[in-house]
Amino acid sequence: MTKLVFTLLGLLYTTLSSAQVWVPDQGDGTFKNPIIYADYSDPDVIRVGTDYYMVASSFTCQPGIPVLHSKDLVNWTLINHVYQALPLERYKEPQHGQGAWAPSIRFHNGTYYVYFCTPEDGLFMASTKDPRKKWEVTFVKPVKGWEDPCPFWDEDGQAYLLRGKVGAGPAILHKMSTDGKTLLDEGTTIYEDKAKQPSLEGFKFLDKREGYYYFSAPAGGVPTGWQAVFRAKTIYGPYEERIVLRQGKTPINGPHQGGLVSTQTGEWWFIHFQDKGSYGRIVHLQPASWKDGWPVMGVDVDGDGTGEPVLTYKKPNVGKTYPIAVPQTSDEFSSTTLGLQWQWQAAPNKAWYTLTGKKGAIRLTAVSVPTDSGSFAVAGNLLLQKFMAPTFSATTKLELHADEAGERAGLAVVNGSFICLEKGKANNRIVIYQQRRKGWDKLYPPVEAASLKTDAQVVWFRVRVNENGTCVYTYSLDGDRYQELGSNYKAERGTWIGSKVGIFCINPTSRASKGFADFDYFRVDK
Q1: CB within 8 A of 136, min separation 6: which ones?
Q2: CB–CB of 93/380 below 8 Å?
Q3: How many angstroms from the chain centroid is the CA of residue 462?
Q4: pLDDT at 19
């Protein structure tokens, strides 16, 4: 029976892997890391019954805080977002580096809670009875300089909130109302040691265990740091500390910042990120165990209590086998709602798009983005999704209905470059623009890198992203024969996020326009 199951899973794996760009489930009872080769930064995870839920940071991208679901910690799909738009006026325009940082998800007394901070606005809490349905967002406290909050309800019912400060550390504990909507004090520092645990952040309360309170936190910085765990007999400390996961001799740099979770069969697992530059912070899964009152994450090669990441491992035992699944990518735009894989650079605006303008297509309107001649840095109306594998191709077909000269629609890699069909004074043009980073959170104005004149109104665009983050663009006028245009262009990370890929239609002037472009599909392939 077991052999038959693995044979069937192998066939399913072969079918799915031919269609998807990254499949962590190897179809033989094992998985490979990362479990999600996409920028789900600062992941946190819980189990409720036989269901696992994960959340991640969003920053300026909206809808915000993706909610993912799995039955086995390996196969994940997107099921929702915590909010459609942040309830603050400023987020109607791009706020690079701002927005939701490092959310925590918990389940208490039949309610799901997500806590997050924005670095300049304050502390938020979202709650729901069903993570697939609408979340109610509460603005708990307007304050600057807070980050990475996590709630905890003690055995006596008292609620607490653990959080840090922008810039990393210390660990600060607040008492909180039982409903989680009000902080009851100004907070008490419960741990700080910049020599042993520098750049402490990403705080997560763990389950109380054998009389100890535990919390976890990454330290040492994003690219090169480690995962630490802290324990004390009282919630206010004093806390002991131990490093439980580090890179060691593996190629997995900075393995940290995530969630520790137990399966229904009693196993323990840790989900964390790895910084991969323009690909963002991708998600890994590590086996975990408890030894002498401390968790050990990964594989403890030398027996010192500190684990190292695994590249492949036996899948978690959750009592049964579930189908292979991956987060959504390709979109035929045949639904009445926008796919969950898509985010904008600002709060979604109904004036930016419609799914009813042309059957089986999404219509993007030519929104005016006059600053820096159409700079993507100030364009909220870019429809984007995360890079989803080390190498992939994305293809779209579009029809441009321009109103004003200079209006353009096309396929973009943000940050880096884009190919578009642009209305000229006489002819249309196919143009590649390059847009490089200018400091931490800005972009240079787009610069024309290659172009050709065309009479076409309908074009097909494709971008090939290679493992080193270089992008090659091709175009077609018949959907069959593709020709390369321009050179290779480097994808660059954004502010706290990786590169993104997607479609757009903009008017780089201040004039009002009735122009638009219809996109028939967005297809992702190996």
Answers
A1: 126, 127, 128
A2: yes
A3: 23
A4: 53
Catalytically active residues are 42, 201
What are the residue ranges in the chain where pLDDT is below 70?
1-19, 439-442
Nearest 10 degrees: CA dihedral of 183, 184, 188, 190? -70
Stated length of the chain:
526
Give the DSSP letter string of 187-202.
-EEEE--TTTS-S---
- According to the model, what pLDDT value does residue 1 have? 45
Instruction: Judge contact between 278 and 251, C-beta under 8 A.
Output: no
* Token pair of 124 as six digits: 């938020």
d(CA 459, CA 471): 19
**Is this model's pTM higher than 0.90 or not?**
yes
Angle, vertex CA 289, rays to CA 284 and CA 294, nearest 5: 110
Cβ-based burial of 69 (10 A; exposed 0-12, middle 13-18, buried ≥19): middle
Beta pairing, strands 30-32 & 516-525: unpaired
DSSP 3-state of 415: coil
- Nearest-angstrom CA–CA distance, 311 and 251: 9
Which residues, including other chains, have CB under 8 Å from residue 7's CB and lie 6 or more apart? none
> Of the candidates 200, 207, 259, which has an alpha carbon nearest to the alpha carbon of residue 231?
207
In angstroms, the CA 417 to CA 133 distance is: 36
- What is the distance between the alpha carbons of residues 523 and 395, in angstroms, rounded to a whole number? 5
